[in-house]
UniProtKB/TrEMBL annotation, chain A:
This is Sulfurtransferase TusA family protein. It comes from the Archaea. It holds the Pfam family TusA. Residues 10-77 form the UPF0033 domain. Belongs to the sulfur carrier protein TusA family. It comes from Halosolutus amylolyticus.
From TrEMBL, chain B:
Its EC number is 1.6.5.-. Pfam families: Pyr_redox_2. Keywords: Oxidoreductase. This is NAD(P)/FAD-dependent oxidoreductase. Coiled coil: none annotated. InterPro entries: FAD/NAD-bd_sf, FAD/NAD-binding_dom, SQRD. One of its GO terms (molecular function) is oxidoreductase activity. Residues 3-294 form the FAD/NAD(P)-binding domain.
Length: 79, 379
């Protein structure tokens, strides 16, 4: 793991179907301070495109998308 | 005696109790089994009626019937609020501190509305998801002749994912009928990057919105509302002015569930096929309170009730339960004041949206009337 992927907050949305993971992320980001690094765990492939699109719209940073055998970890920095 | 307790006399709980009365008729009559339905409200409420209240097509009284009239006489009925579930000792506690023991338990307590979760929403927004909200909206809509009407889906998940799209298409048609549409701008907003969670409904709704001159905004997550200035602020940093805001408020599960350790966020964690609670033995959940990957819809509660009735009856008789739920969901969708469509899907399937028609609108209204037979377990 690189330094970037040391999260302050982890959201486990594994097994939630679309748009569950994205909604979990949006709900959480609302409550977080600028600079917080969030790890979103998801088994939903759509999250790998929906989440970056939302980050762009909402003005947060996408740090990395890590692919695992059965899920993805998406790393985000709150702005 | 084998004691089955069902908490919640809405769609799921009522259908389940009546199904069990049929399936376990001999055991109930010989006193080997008891089916007890516990519900907080003396009336059973059929919520889909509320969609028609703002347009003056139904009243909130049309949505209510005494639960006593709907439940088979072999079911023991208790009117009372359950305040605690102890799944280790298998006991329920009531608001009046009395206690009831069970052998098998089903939670069917539904979802509740939580407008307070968004600052300004309760003061600034209308909704049609409950009796008072639907009546207040009816009164304000009747006087609303010009300006910006915004339908905003604030909470996801919410009951009946179709209802916000239906309301938007209905209000467009209703205003046209009244000759007011040209003086009213309509905007529909949704939290994710399309108009609905299901792609096929999103595509269908987007085409209709464009055809009918309804604006829509996606990635629109309401952060707060200023009721005096009539402005919505979003998490994404945008602002929208409104003159009449119809909002689908955030929904909440139940503290009962969290306190009992059955699900962290208030919805019961269940196996999506057996509907058995993940964290406790002999506990099931059906309807809106169960966390399964499909819509919070009455049809879901209904089909789940059928499956759980079979499983409970098998257990009561000492046989191995085999019935499972495959996620079957059925919804009628109004596409205006006099046409509707219909969808049907199971877990992991994308529904096919048919061309809206008048017969399907009449089928939806017909179903709403015959619902009382459904609740009785006859349909
Ligand atoms: C405007 C609107 C339109 C809708 N349209 C449709 C539609 O067209 N098609 C469709 O399929 N679905 C529709 N729905 C959704 C449908 O109404 C719900 O999904 C359905 O009612 C869920 O059933 P349920 O049994 O889980 O809960 P409910 O029907 O909500 O019943 C819950 C019951 O539990 C009781 N209760 C709660 N807590 C306790 C407690 N602690 N102790 C005792 N009792 C308790 C309540 O009093 C209530 O009787 C619509 C909903 C709304 C709001």
């Amino acid at each position: 793991m690189t330094e970037i992927t040391e999260p302050d907050v982890t959201i486990d949305s594994k097994d939630a179907t679309c748009p569950g993971p994205l909604m979990d992320l949006i709900g959480k980001v609302k409550t977080l301070d600028q600079g917080t690094v969030v790890e979103l765990q998801t088994t939903e492939r759509n999250s790998t495109t929906d989440v970056p699109e939302w980050l762009e719209k909402a003005g947060h940073d996408l740090l990395e998308i890590e692919e695992h055998d059965d899920h993805w970890n998406i790393y985000i920095e709150v702005n | 005696m084998h004691r089955i307790a069902i908490v919640g006399g809405g769609t799921g709980g009522t259908v389940l109790a009546n199904r069990l009365a049929n399936e376990l008729q001999p055991e109930l009559e010989s006193g080997e089994v008891e089916v007890r339905l516990i519900t907080a409200d003396r009336d059973h409420v059929y919520k889909p009626t509320f969609l028609y209240v703002p347009f003056g097509k139904k009243t909130v009284d049309d949505a209510r019937r005494p639960i006593e009239d709907l439940v088979d006489r072999r079911v023991s009925l208790t009117i009372g609020e359950v305040t605690g579930v102890d799944t280790d000792t298998k006991k329920l506690t009531f608001a009046d501190s009395s206690i009831l023991a069970y052998d098998q338990l089903v939670l069917a307590t539904g979802a509740s509305l939580d407008p307070e979760a968004v600052p300004g929403l309760a003061e600034g927004g209308h909704h049609f998801y409950g009796p008072e909200g639907a009546e207040a909206l009816r009164d304000d809509l009747a006087e609303f002749t010009e300006g910006h009407l915004v339908l905003s889906v604030v909470g996801v998940p919410h009951m009946c994912p179709a209802a916000p799209v239906e309301f938007t298409l209905m209000v467009d048609d209703w205003l046209r009928e009244r000759g007011r549409r040209e003086d009213v701008d309509i905007t529909y907003t949704y939290p994710i990057n399309r108009a609905h969670g299901l792609q096929s409904i999103a595509d269908w709704a987007t085409d209709l919105f464009e055809e009918r001159d309804i604006d829509f905004e996606t990635f629109f997550n309401v952060d707060e509302i200023d009721p005096d200035a009539e402005v919505i602020q979003t998490v994404e940093g945008s602002e929208m002015d409104y003159d009449l805001l119809v909002a689908i408020p955030p929904h909440a599960g139940s503290d009962l569930v969290t306190d009992a350790g059955l699900g962290e966020d208030g919805w019961v964690d269940v196996d999506k096929h057996t509907l058995e609670a993940t964290n406790a033995e002999d506990v099931y959940a059906i309807g809106d309170i169960a966390d399964v990957p499909t819509s919070k819809a009455g049809s879901v509660a209904h089909y789940e009730a059928g499956v759980v009735a079979d499983r409970l009856a098998s257990r009561a008789r000492g046989t191995v339960p085999t019935a499972t739920y495959d996620g079957k969901t059925v919804c009628f969708l109004e596409a205006g004041m006099d046409e509707a469509t219909f969808i049907e899907f199971s877990y992991g399937e994308e529904p096919f949206v048919r061309e809206p028609s008048k017969p399907l609108h009449w089928a939806k209204l017909g179903y709403n009337e015959s619902y009382w037979l459904t609740a009785r377990g006859l349909l």
